[in-house]
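Predict the structure of parp.
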Amino acid sequence: MDPPIHHPLGKRPAAEDDSVISDCESGVSGGDTAAGFVPADENADLVRTRFVRGLAAHGLKPEVLAVGRNACSSVMAQARQHSFHVFARAVAKLRDGNANVKFAWYGASSKEEISDIVQNGFFGHAHGNGLRLFPQDSPLESVKSSVVDKDGLRHLLLCRVILGKTELVPRDSNQCRSSSEEFDSGVDDLSNPKEYVIWCNQINTHVLPEYVLSFRFPSPLKGHVKIGEPLRPSSPWMAFPALISVLSKILPPPDIAYIAKFHKDYREKRISRHELIQKVRVIAGDKLLFSVIKSFRAKKIPASFKANKGNEWQAESQQLERYDCSYGSSINYYRK
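Done. Here is the predicted structure for parp.
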């Protein structure tokens, strides 16, 4: 059995220990780390070992280049750190002394995203019904949601998460908050969870980024599980405003606002085309995107659309497609 990862931010919170936190800077581990992180402490080898072991079960052999630890160097980062421990103690009081604090992975799109999370928290990085993270012993899904950067690296955050009392929340659920005051967070399986759901109103109090892990896979990955390999798009191209127009009939307004923002960032060259695609996949889901793009190609409307909405969509999408030709934006659709 692996030894526990000790908490460099001080003694363990709430469910583990009721002590207050201390400062969190020091330690050594190789490689460059993302902004806001320092080389990791004595736990670096344990973080690396558990990550590698979790992927080895799927036949994957990542090369870990760096493990960094959250420096909590800014005033706001220290405030979020303190808030995390306050809420951990509060949840522990509500749940018979057990805040159910776990480690969980988050797959990042870039070092810049990690730096933004460290500086500003997770607001703007949760989509749909909340922030989804993956247990420490199951890193594969977070690896799939990560994006290869210009240096060929992927980056994951290992976070401490206050789960409290969990309730069942299926992946296709539209639930966006706890069903009652009896629960604090969601899981995909009550007996053996592979995914945690932290509601949007709690993501900056119940999630604390602690480590960043940078890694890559040997190329090619023959005979192994495929990680984010692109397949051929189901349509030669689809104007992005047309895609947004269709999705706006299906997804909630906050999700559409995020997609529009990421599209604007792409047009202004703040993110790459691949990053844009990955972000849209996370928000909309592959099944919906496949249906929309396939229907666009056939000029048909998905069965879930109402007839009147379908007519509106077809007219709007054709108009937007003509408009969008001026800058040639398009989306390739990737499937797992």
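The longest strand covers residues 207-216.
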